[in-house]
Design a protein that fits this description.
By secondary structure, this protein is an all-alpha fold. It folds into 2 domains: 53 residues; 33 residues. It contains 4 helices and no strands.
């Protein structure tokens, strides 16, 4: 054995992470996070990109915890409480009412311009 991986090249497996990002993806993500990583070495660019994407994931999970009353229980493989189910039902009803109101407003706005 030469100590080299038998699948792919040694450069394919950086720090146990097989993700490779294009320069365009790195550029777009750094603009979103206001962080300049293009000057980093290629290995460090991938690590910085993984860090930025994990930050995005954390933010999305936090937002879901705030907006979805059933999410916390289901994430822990538990049955949502009666109160959480009622909150979710009320949220769904309110969203439906807002959607109907918006449809009425949009249809009236469209008739004014005709």
């Amino acid at each position: 054995m030469s100590g080299q991986p038998s699948t792919g090249t040694a450069s394919l497996f950086e720090d146990g992470d097989e993700r490779h990002y294009s320069r365009g993806a790195i550029h777009d993500e750094q603009r979103h996070h206001l962080r300049n990583v293009e000057g980093y070495m290629r290995k460090d660019q991938h690590k910085a990109m993984n860090d930025m994407l994990s930050e995005d994931t954390k933010v999305q999970i936090e937002e879901r915890y705030k907006k979805d009353p059933l999410y916390s229980a289901t994430m822990h493989n538990n049955q949502p409480s009666w109160g959480a189910r009622q909150d979710a039902k009320i949220q769904a009803e309110e969203a439906e009412m807002l959607r109907k109101k918006q449809e009425k407003i949009d249809s009236k706005a469209g008739k004014k311009f005709e």
